[in-house]
Amino acid sequence: MEDKILVHICCGVDAVWALRKLKMDFPDAQIKGFFYDPNIHPEEEYELRWIETLRICEDLGIECIKGDYDIERWIDLTKGLENEPERGKRCTVCHDLRLEETAKLAKKLNFNKFTTVLLMSPKKDFQVLKDVGESIGRKYGLEFLAVDFRKKGGVENMNRLSKEYQLYHQNYCGCMYALFQQRKDKGYISELVSFGRGRIAGSREELLFIKDIRIFAESLGLKVKEDKFKFIGWRLIRSVLTVNKEPVPHRVLPYSSSLKSVLRAKVARSYEEEDKVVLNLNKGNVQIWITDNPEAESLKKPRLFTDPVFITDNSIPQDAKIELQLEADFIPDSESTNLIIGNPDAESYVEFYSDTLPDGSLGFDPEKIKELLISNREKILSGMLSVRIYGAEHCGKLGREYSKIGEKSLKKL
Ligand code: SF4
């Protein structure tokens, strides 16, 4: 009988070597992947791990099924185990669930063997996974393949391949409880926070956008390259602007620092600058910019820890009583990515950027970029044209700054 192996997959990093090893050990077997990770929080993280898994599977010619994001069920099953340490009882329940669902699907698909790439992770207990897998295997009449993927240079192979594939490398196991424990001294857990509906620079949403375009470009046979860069991120938590006690719609210029408390001020000086009127207030070194199009007022150059700037299209009388509140966070270890599709030295290029404002405005629709890739595929393949997608555009065009090397020799379309 032909061996049919269903492989539970939790992420691209653990899968990249383990799937290769299985293909080598079982060259005649039919291998299928099953991405099942209801433990992952938040959902954007789950999608990111899925898209990277898909990339690996497609490259290896392995079909992969995406399981349900059944987080409510996972939370129910781990009730009372929230404070367990990693490798404790909560992890056993978490492994049981994922392996049992894999076995059920293997049975349904008429497969005779199953395994998991969790066996690849140096942070997992091999013996515990083996015991769980074998006991579930007995229950469903399946053979559990307890392959120690880490042995014989497996970990080194995984690290090398992860780099080659430029895989997203998560920095926590997956669930919110492990993350709470890992970051308990920090007070603030940026991985668990999502602000607004947009793709702010350095966020998972921004990276997901890049990975989505990347996988599409690769499916067209186009060459891609990701360039990562670090920067100090900024997120607006809350802002209030009232004029004579009336709330005024506004934006806050990125990298504005927080105000300690409610600031009550008046206009000290006003002057025109380019296409806006600038109001300097008499307290707190705060400026208000009045412009017809506040949305277009992006940060043109990188800046850090500067005085607050509020931007509005409302007029403000000279003698108005103004109240302001502003709370923002700086995130020191932010990372963003530039994506280059095609030959970086192509004679011409088209450019986009990946981030948006927090409300989702001032960004590109991924479908439009994909259409452009389809209609220009031949030109990109021939090396005449490349497509560049910059990260962190709204933080002072950081991605562009980072990629300046060699740009002078290129002709922009
Ligand atoms: S730490 Fe990892 S294995 Fe343990 S419960 Fe959380 S997600 Fe599951």
UniProtKB/TrEMBL annotation:
Main EC class the enzyme belongs to: oxidoreductase
Domain of life where this protein originates: Bacteria
Pathway this chain belongs to: tRNA modification; tRNA-queuosine biosynthesis
Gene3D superfamilies, sorted: HUPs
One Pfam family named in its UniProt record: QueH
MF terms in GO: 4 iron, 4 sulfur cluster binding; epoxyqueuosine reductase activity; metal ion binding
Catalytic activity: epoxyqueuosine(34) in tRNA + AH2 = queuosine(34) in tRNA + A + H2O
InterPro entries reported in the protein's UniProt record: QueH, Rossmann-like_a/b/a_fold
EC nos: 1.17.99.6
Keyword annotations from UniProtKB, A to Z: 4Fe-4S, Disulfide bond, Iron, Iron-sulfur, Metal-binding, Oxidoreductase, Queuosine biosynthesis, Redox-active center, tRNA processing
Residue sites binding [4Fe-4S] cluster per the record: 10-11, 91, 94
Disulfide bond entries: 173-175
Sequence similarity: Belongs to the QueH family.
Family annotation (PANTHER family): EPOXYQUEUOSINE REDUCTASE QUEH
Function: Catalyzes the conversion of epoxyqueuosine (oQ) to queuosine (Q), which is a hypermodified base found in the wobble positions of tRNA(Asp), tRNA(Asn), tRNA(His) and tRNA(Tyr).
HAMAP family named among the record's database cross-references: QueH
Name recorded for this polypeptide: Epoxyqueuosine reductase QueH
Organism annotation: Persephonella marina (strain DSM 14350 / EX-H1)
Lineage: Bacteria, Pseudomonadati, Aquificota, Aquificia, Aquificales
